[in-house]
Request: fold
Amino acid sequence: MPNAVVVGTQWGDEGKAKVIDYLSRFCDIVIRFHGGANAGHTVIADGKKFIFHLVPSGIMYPGKVCVVSNGVVFDAEQFLREIDDLGAKNVSVEGRLFVSDLAHLVMPYHKLQDSANESAMGEKKIGTTGRGIGPAYADKATRTGLRVGDLAEWDSFTKKLAENFIAKKRLLSFYGQPFELDLDKTTALYRGFRARLLPFIADTGDLLYKAAKAGKRLLFEGAQGTFLDIDHGTYPFVTSSNTIAGAASTGAGVGPSLVNHVIGIVKAYTTRVGNGPFPTEIMGDMGERIRSMGGEFGATTGRPRRCGWFDSVLLRRSAQLNGLTRLALTKLDVLSGLDEIKICTHYELDGKRIEVFPTSPAVLEKAVPKYETMPGWKTDLSKCSKLADVPEKALAYVKRLQALCYGVPLLLVSVGPDRTQTIEVEPL
Reply:
């Protein structure tokens, strides 16, 4: 398999982890290139459920190397928790999991700051996960952050930590929030983290470059979704990093010439967690039915996801932003049993047809989705192993989605949560 980037094409939760897990069989190294522990990736393998927030999903395959690269903001406590959980399930990571020395640390005070920020915004709150992601990226931008590599230089780390405690205590005081952290206890906590983390820390950019030169196959794992991108998403209801395919290069420390394919993961309907515009959102019983059938609850927070019909306007913009070369369609099985299914083909605003996803939040809020309706199907898709097994009405739905998304070729169709419930269509 050539080197490929996997990205979510909607607002996240498209099923990236399953596709990455599936593709990991064909690659040598899986790289998480942005975001933090605010992203939850769920893999079901051999009936066992694994939820990852930082460790790349490819870790489930013995012998595969996994990298948490420099574009990630790194929560040491969460990472070690995942390592322990894997060990308890007899999955060894020894010698095949590395963390970039350039990745910035999410510190306990970032989580306090995140909560204070949200509280101060009142009704205008973004709906963050409270994991400290935004404040960690803010410190990175203002050059006051601590990096994973700083743990190796302990005296320098403790000095910077003490300076940051003073600054953050002052900031939280401005918000009227208590600063419930103790410097000595936090220092001791990170001393313990340091002892466990040092074997994982590496110059991962150099590691990846040399691996690529040696012919190793790289799979870049995106988190969240295209429309949570800090630049191109539905701002300000976005995450704090670049989530599109182009971020794989800067986030992993390798040149863009190493990327051969961009695989866009798209759910057969649309979901969103948290606040922000959502043109095709379904209110009432139908929205609740899809949420229940699809198990649409956040892997990180457990929050119910907002559910809506498939939005082709959104997907066309995603194809443009990411340069998609393949689509991976997930959760087609969830729609089984519906009498009819709607597809948003375009928007209208003030009597004008809108084919391109608006960059203005104000325009998007007022845009009216326009639908075409297709007949549903009653057949259970979970046992389908090839396209010929898929009922005609379901196959017609798939082909219509593809046609509305510039005809980007289909890589695979997922018909259930397990890695075996995958129909491969057009391999890379």
